[in-house]
Amino acid sequence: MDVRIEDLGPTRKRIHVIVPEETVKREIDGAYVELRRTAKVKGFRPGKTPRQILERYYGDYVTEQVISKLIGNTYEGALARGNIRPVSQPTLDNEELTEGEPFKYSAVVDVNPDIDVKDYVGIPLKKRQLKLEKDDVTKGLEQLQNIHAQLKTVGEDRAAGDGDFVVIDFQGTIDGEPFKGGRGESVSVEIGAGRFLPDLEKALVGARCDEEREVEITFPDNHREKDLAGKKALFHMRIREIREKVFPALDDEFAKDVGCESLKDLERKVKSEIQEEKQFAINRELEKDIIDFVIEKNAFEVPKSMVDRQVEALIRELKLNLAHQGVEFETSGLDEEKLREQYRDRAIRDVKSTLLLNRIAELEKIKVRKDEVGKRFEDIAKRTNRTKSQVEAYYSKNDLVGGLKAQLLEEKTLRFLRDKADITDT
């Protein structure tokens, strides 16, 4: 087998392969021997069909099978000879298969660029100091109260106000005609939360149980339903029920309900969690600044196929986030092609970050140990109320272990760069 590598750019190679004629002949002969055993041709007993008859009936089929086998048997070897490690599936092109002649084909693949990474030790960074504001703990306790609040139906003599949950039936019309999605029964609207149409929420202020109200609203120009964007609609509403939040008292009993021994103990826990969150945010800022600095100092092209895959990953992530909010992508008003354009710069940065961190890890001999993977499995198990063995089995079954190791390697490399950085507190 003859192999020649052609450079098509910093991140693309064409591999030219020539398979010798004796190998071609052997595969063609073998294909017809196997075919003779199984082929059923009228007028011939099984295993006795002459080859020229088989060629007449099955010639195209044999050619396809032999070409596929020749490429499959030689492609990996060609990569090894050329010292090529592709990051994309090959785009194949081949000449005709002719018995008695060599078989020629080529494969175009994307490869990682050669990165002569520099200036990654002693990166100048400015770090925010961790500061706890006076009301941070108070706000944290209020959030806990809000999470554990109960909804209580208010009396008929009480009007709805900010923070109340109003249960309504509504019917919307445009030019007197109902429209899709414009009708609802027993829908709970939190006044002031901004999760419903803002003008409709405002129209509920002061409303009382069993009262009926009408409000005219104009849908925003960027409304997720394109048919409704910019149009005026009239909503007729009937108030079925008004509920208010009843917050638990902030005392030792409440603290025990949420797993602490006393209110003081709860305050300490909330303070510690806030400090952890702030420190996490500070470290994420440092990591972002590290990546920005290294990317700026090391210019290189990135493989198009890797950018395309990252764009698709970002779109999948967006769709998943929308689904968690109860929004279908198809009705969100978002244009998938425009999203691909918008995400491209971010995807390029993500790919550059991955390639640079992997290269630095290689240069500094940073590796992920088996016990570090096990520790991460334990952490995931605690967060998800599963056993470590269940988490390991899930990651193995869904082929996620490699991705977890890659994530751990990036984290270790970023810690290395942060430890080696020239950090100034601000």
Q: Would you kindly provide a written description of the structure presented here, covering whatever features stand out?
A:
- The protein is of the alpha+beta class and 426 residues long.
- It has three domains: 2-110, 2-Layer Sandwich (Alpha-Beta Plaits); 150-246, Chitinase A, domain 3 (Roll), CATH 3.10.50.40; 254-425, Trigger factor, C-terminal domain (Trigger factor, domain 2, Orthogonal Bundle), CATH 1.10.3120.
- The protein has helices at 21-38, 51-81, 136-147, 198-203, 252-257, 263-297, 304-324, 336-363, 370-384, 388-397, 401-419, and strands at 2-9, 12-19, 91-94, 103-110, 124-127, 150-153, 165-174, 177-190, 212-218, 232-246, 422-425.
- Strands 6, 7, 8, 9 and 10 form a five-stranded antiparallel sheet that branches. A four-stranded antiparallel sheet has the order 1-2-4-3. The chain has a two-stranded parallel sheet with strand order 5-11.
- A hairpin with a 2-residue loop joins β1 and β2 (12-19).
- α7 packs across α8 (336-363).
